[in-house]
Design goal:
By secondary structure, the chain is mainly beta. It has seven domains: 73 residues, no CATH class; 118 residues, no CATH class; 106 residues, Immunoglobulin-like; 129 residues, Sandwich (Immunoglobulin-like), CATH 2.60.40; 137 residues; 126 residues, Immunoglobulin-like; 78 residues. 0% of the residues lie in helices and 51% in strands. It has a six-stranded antiparallel sheet with strand order 8-14-13-12-11-10, with no helix packed on it.
């Protein structure tokens, strides 16, 4: 409240809250800027004071029609009814006199006699229903009701006495508040020589104490249309006290309503309203009119011993109903929208409710006030960095960022409203995709006669739209690292939805973990701890100074993972146990909201499964199982090529066992056009073994010379190749014999053994060749070759090797031609020649 106007004078109310006093002919009004007031009447003749006031809302708007905002004070004609205050015990001082004639004066005392008469309740002397017993001790009469002293009479020797009444006596006449109970106390005079007088008495007349009712006035509260009170709150019930059932009847007009003793309510209906009252005196009056009026009710009260007010027609309850020109009220409303649901816009509807009371309904409109609060970027209301300006026209609030409409709020006259949002607002909390900006739109209700409500608010809570990002999982297999510069790589993409806030960026969030089959529980490469860092949009994992892997994340969410060194896996029994690398990635939308996810790269182990794995080639002289050497001469037995280049973390162990310690054994490698001995591997003559271990990336290409020390053959020489990787090993072996002193015949020339035409489309052709070759202990070979002319399809051919024996007695073959019209020619030949057989052990 800003000011009050009375009789043409404007009183400005201090914003400090200090009171202002306005004096009129009828009284004084004390009021402050909060609207709290008190009014004190200074007249008994009655009157009315009307004060006009102006109010303001939080942002300083004032009521545009202050002349209708009034405070009316009605001062009734006050006809005071005197009251009697209960001052406690009643004391009477008086005296009796004695005539001692010519004798010497003596004294006056009580003679222990007492009587009562008059208007005694039930014919007995009682106080609050308890019998009063009177005794004399010394010169004092005492009347007690139980333990309570009701009265005392003290008699002095000279005849003076004092009567004190401490408690009320129960009088019989309920209609007479002054009916009398008479108390007679016996006294006697004794002269100087002991003569006693005839008994006299001191009589005390105790008048009853009736209640006194005082008029009441109440004014109906215009906001609630009710007034409550208690008609006995200002009544005097005297020394008898107020009973529970204090009000016995109420009269309105010519009708008297007796109030039930059980305390139930009685309703009295008038043209202005309804009075509900019970025998305690408590009442509620409800107005049913807005035109104003006065209702007067008279009531009768009684005290505890049943006395009633003798002037009941003057004890009234006056209820004043002013002409109620109601000010409407409007309730506020709040709704929530989520920018996540903008496709292409988001909207919400609601309503505010106005109470026009008994006035004619009007309309609800905006009052051109707007504020915003909550999680605003930079403390300001913006959209994509542009300030939002809100205006109001023709029932519509419009928020614009430059020329772009960000939102509208349309308010209907009945209080319904629709909020539409077309562009996102810039929220402040980057860690919360649902932080809220509050938009507060002012509304006001106006009733049919122009009264305006205090402003209400439509609040729209706008939740942010955070980005959404879905992680990705990729896989690489270290088994693919088989080249001279071993690398494996994979690509993928995380799925990002930036929502209505618009695109921002995708990059790493500088978080990395590894899980799965980690050797020793940690991420290592060849025993060295792998440390992962993020630089820009790239994660790099290093073991010492060596790069092991890297992940490059692009702005569009695509990524590339590249691995150049193996990782140490834990399970030696599983060649495909998995280490999972978890790279943190985040999506940031236009206003800075962040969503996080993970790119998972599953790295499968490169464990050997079957051999051959490395490249190892062994050439054994002459034939597959037996090697023939001259006695005591160096000869090449084995040519070997072996390497681990491109084989990841593999090692290759080569072992020759079963060697004779007395034989000469020399590894040689080629140098130019010559073969030279080399100190390679470990030759254990006593054990008869030679061992060579190739580390990852190493190779060997050489020969082995043997020199027997006798004509004794060397049997069951074993060649073993063992591949080891990540604690896993796979071994494959082969064996051969060295035959000392054996020779071989010269190769035989190829010769045609038989030739004849065959009808290919009718029968199969079988040729049997029998030929005894030289007795040289070497295997012999028979070759069957089928030929045909140019018009025929291809015909199968093969080589058949006989078993090793001194004589090859026969060999055979069967061939079948396709259906053709010409004849095929089958040629069978036999050869005996020196062969080299290659064993591939890998």
């Amino acid at each position: 409240m800003t000011k009050v106007i009375f009789n043409g004078t404007t009183y400005t109310l201090p914003t400090s809250g200090a009171n202002v006093t306005i004096t009129s002919a009828n009284g004084k009004l004390t009021i402050n800027d909060k609207g709290a007031y008190s009014y004190t009447s200074t007249t008994t003749t009655g009157g009315k004071d009307t004060f006009t006031y102006v109010i303001a809302d939080k942002d300083g708007d004032t009521d545009t029609a202050p002349a209708t905002n009034t405070l009316t004070i009605t001062v009734d004609d006050i006809d005071y009814t005197p009251t009697v205050t209960n001052l406690g015990p009643i004391t009477i001082n008086d005296s009796v006199s004695a005539n001692y004639f010519s004798d010497a004066a003596g004294s006056i005392t009580g003679n222990n006699s007492f009587a009562s008469s008059g208007s005694k309740l039930g014919g007995n002397l009682t106080s609050n229903g308890v019998a009063v017993v009177v005794t004399q001790v010394g010169n004092v009469y005492t009347g007690k009701a139980g333990a309570d002293t009701v009265f005392t009479l003290t008699i002095n020797a000279n005849g003076s006495y004092t009567f004190v009444l401490n408690k009320p006596l129960d009088h019989a006449d309920k209609t007479n508040p002054d009916d009398i109970i008479t108390l007679d106390f016996g006294v006697i005079a004794t002269d100087g020589d002991g003569d006693k007088s005839t008994p006299g008495k001191i009589t005390i007349n105790v008048k009853d104490d009736g209640p006194t009712a005082v008029n009441d006035t109440s004014t109906v509260n215009p906001s609630t249309k009710t007034v409550t009170g208690d008609v006995t709150s200002n009544d005097d019930f005297g020394s008898d006290g107020k009973p529970t059932q204090a009000v016995t009847k109420v009269t309105f007009g010519s009708t008297t309503y007796n109030l039930p003793a059980d305390g139930s309510n009685v309703t009295i209906t008038t043209t202005n309203g309804k009075l509900v009252i019970n025998n305690t005196g408590k009442y509620t009056y409800t107005s049913t009119t807005t035109t104003g009026g006065v209702d007067n009710f008279s009531y009768v009260i009684k005290d505890k011993d049943g006395d009633t007010d003798t002037s009941a027609t003057t004890a009234t309850l006056k209820v004043v109903v002013d002409d109620l020109d109601y000010t409407p009220t409007v309730t506020s409303s709040a709704k929530t929208v989520d920018e996540t649901n903008m496709n292409p816009n988001t909207s919400v509807t609601g309503s505010v409710v106005a109470n026009y009371f008994d006035d004619v309904a009007g309309s609800i409109t905006g009052n051109n006030s707007f504020t915003s609060a909550g999680s605003k970027a930079g403390g300001n209301l913006t959209s994509n960095g542009v300030a939002v300006v809100v205006t109001y026209a023709n029932g519509v609030y419009t928020g614009k960022a430059g020329t772009s409409t960000v939102f509208t709020l349309t308010i209907g006259a009945n209080g319904s409203y629709t909020y539409n949002q077309f562009k996102p607002l810039d929220h402040a909390d980057k860690t919360n995709p649902d932080d809220i900006i509050n938009l507060n739109f002012g509304v006001i209700a106006t009733d049919g006669d122009g009264d305006k409500s205090l402003p209400g608010t439509i609040t729209i809570n706008v939740k942010d739209d955070g980005p959404a990002i879905i992680g990705s999982t990729a896989q690489v297999d270290e088994s693919d690292m088989k080249t001279a510069t071993p690398t494996i790589s994979t690509t993928g993409k995380v799925t990002v939805d930036f929502g209505t806030d618009g695109a921002g960026s995708v990059n790493g969030n500088n978080s990395f973990t590894s899980t799965g089959s980690l050797l020793g529980g940690k991420l290592t490469s060849k025993g060295v701890d792998v440390t992962v860092t993020q630089s820009g949009n790239t994660y790099i994992g290093k073991a010492g100074a060596e790069e092991v892997f890297k992940l490059v994340i692009n702005a569009d969410g695509t990524y590339t993972y590249t691995q150049s060194k193996i990782l140490d896996h834990a399970d030696p029994k599983d060649p495909n146990d998995v280490i999972t690398l978890n790279f943190g990635v985040k999506a940031t939308d236009y206003d800075g909201d962040v969503a996080n996810t993970v790119i998972k790269v599953n790295v499968l182990d490169d464990g050997p499964t079957t051999l051959p794995v490395p490249s190892v080639a062994i050439c054994v002289n002459n034939y597959e199982d037996n090697v023939y050497l001259p006695t005591s001469a160096y000869a090449t037995v084995i040519s070997m090529t072996a390497d681990t280049t491109g084989q990841g973390n593999q090692t290759l162990k080569l072992v020759l066992s079963g060697l004779d310690p007395d034989w000469a054994f020399t590894p040689v490698v080629q140098s130019g056009s010559s073969w030279v001995p080399i100190n390679l591997g470990t030759y254990n003559a006593a054990a008869g073994t030679w061992t060579l271990t190739l580390a990852p990336g190493e190779n060997f290409d050489g020969k082995f010379y043997f020199k027997p020390d006798s004509n004794v053959d060397l049997r069951d020489i074993t060649f073993t190749a063992t591949v080891t990787e990540d604690g896993q090993s796979v071994t494959q072996s082969d064996d051969f014999n060295i035959i000392v002193g054996a020779t071989d015949a010269a190769p035989m020339a190829m010769m045609a053994m038989a030739s004849e035409p065959v009808v290919d489309d009718t029968t199969a052709t079988s040729k049997v060749v029998s030929k005894s070759l030289a007795n040289d202990n070497l295997p012999d070979y028979a070759s069957v070759v089928e030929t045909h002319d140019a018009t025929q399809n291809a015909i199968d051919s093969f080589v058949h090797q006989t078993s090793s024996s001194s004589t090859v007695s026969s060999s055979s073959s069967t061939t079948t031609t396709n259906e053709v019209t010409t004849h095929a020619v089958t040629t069978v030949s036999m050869t005996d020649e020196l062969q080299q057989t290659q064993h591939q052990v890998a």
